[in-house]
Specification:
The complex is a heterodimer of chains A (166) and B (181). By secondary structure, chain A is an alpha+beta fold. Chain A is 19% helix and 41% strand. In chain A, strands 1, 2, 3, 8 and 9 form a 5-stranded antiparallel β-sheet that branches. In chain A, a hairpin with a 5-residue loop joins strand 5 and strand 6 (113-120). Chain B is mainly alpha-helical and 181 residues long. Chain B contains 8 helices and 3 strands, in the order H-H-H-H-H-H-H-H-E-E-E. Classes of the chains: A alpha+beta (166), B mainly alpha (181). Strand 7 (128-135) of chain A pairs antiparallel with strand 1 (143-149) of chain B.
Chain lengths: 166, 181
């Protein structure tokens, strides 16, 4: 009989711990969904002519894989840090006169960030009217293809609570 | 005044005929005022009867010599020697009753173990894999495009592998070079 009670107690405790874990996860998710989060925008000028790859990009191995592997040189033009607040637009100017508009829509239950992005000239919608992505903390998404000074602009956006905004 | 309810252990001993005569009589009296316990006894009796019927049906399939040898071995096992005095009082019921209690105990323990394992599995974080063998944990890394409007341009969505094997979203849009405003 004691064995049965022991096993039933284990089952109850496991069930209770699962419920508690789900509850705390939901509470954390709700709390985080209203919090601001630091982000970084990486503006890179990539060219097919042979040249240097900016040392700052060494860790971004994704930029050495297709469709970026045709570029033989990469230069970091700017790396502005900003804070994304749910529902509020954050703007970053690009060297070609366009602006990146980023909006944190929400924090997903799995901890990823749902972000809306747009790249346009002021008061225009000539390039990228709308982009919605989900990204986990520290993992970038890229928007590339704008031609600039004989090269191509590669814009990377990284949402990362560990980064501090300026 | 209402008689106290017999505990499960005592009730089971009563069912198995393992109580002393006086104790059995006292318990029988107390059961008259506890219909739920009487129902429990009836339920056990039905289960035992069903088991005995099923057992009888299979008797022909059993090797009686080896079964007898097994019973002898179990009769000499420590379980039998725990309650020799009680068995001496009711020798006819002692051995089968003891065996059935062990059987029911094992069945109940089995159910409890199954429930514990089921809940333990349910309590584990889900690690579902898609057809490519990618776990849910791996899928939550990286970035992915939910929606894109290329406007008047043409564009392509790529997935690039990151340093940790995660999938990173790349939106590539062709355009004409624009000048500074």
């Amino acid at each position: 009989m004691s064995l049965i009670r022991y096993l039933v107690m284990i089952a109850i405790l496991l069930g209770a711990s699962r419920v508690a874990a789900q509850g705390s996860s939901l509470v954390r998710s709700d709390r985080d969904s209203t919090a601001s989060v630091p982000a970084e925008v990486l503006v890179v000028l990539a060219k097919e002519e042979p040249g240097e790859i900016d040392p700052e990009l060494k860790k971004l191995t994704a930029l050495r894989r297709p469709p970026f592997n045709s570029f033989r040189s990469m230069e970091v033009l700017s790396r502005p840090k900003l804070t994304l607040t749910p529902g509020k637009d954050a703007l970053v100017s690009l060297p070609n006169g366009r602006r990146v508009k980023l909006t944190l829509l929400r924090v997903m239950p799995d901890g990823r960030y749902k972000v809306k992005a747009a790249i346009n000239r002021p008061n225009k919608s000539d390039y990228l009217p709308l982009l919605q992505v989900v990204a986990s903390a520290g993992d970038p998404f890229f928007v590339a293809g704008q031609t600039y000074q004989g090269g191509t602009l590669v814009v990377g956006v990284i949402v990362d609570p560990k980064k501090t905004s300026q | 005044m209402e008689s106290p309810k017999p505990d499960d252990q005592k009730l089971q001993m009563f069912f198995d005929g393992e109580l002393a005569t006086e104790e059995e009589a006292a318990l029988r009296r107390s059961l008259e005022s506890t219909p739920e316990r009487m129902a429990q006894i009836r339920e056990w009796a039905q289960i035992r009867e069903a088991m005995q019927t099923a057992s009888a049906d299979r008797t022909g399939e059993i090797d009686s010599d080896s079964l007898f040898a097994r019973i002898e071995a179990e009769v000499s096992a420590p379980v039998i020697s725990i309650e020799p005095a009680r068995r001496a009082k009711e020798p006819v019921r002692a051995v089968p009753g003891g065996r059935e209690r062990r059987v029911w105990g094992a069945v109940a323990a089995g159910f409890a173990a199954a429930a514990a394992i089921f809940l333990a599995v349910m309590a584990r974080p889900t690690t579902h894999q898609d057809p490519n063998g990618v776990t849910a944990a791996a899928r939550t890394r990286g970035s992915e495009v939910l929606e894109v409007d290329f406007g008047t341009n043409t564009g392509t969505i790529f997935e690039v592998e990151g340093g940790a094997g995660e999938s990173l979203a790349v939106v590539w849009i062709d355009d004409e070079e624009v000048g500074l405003q």
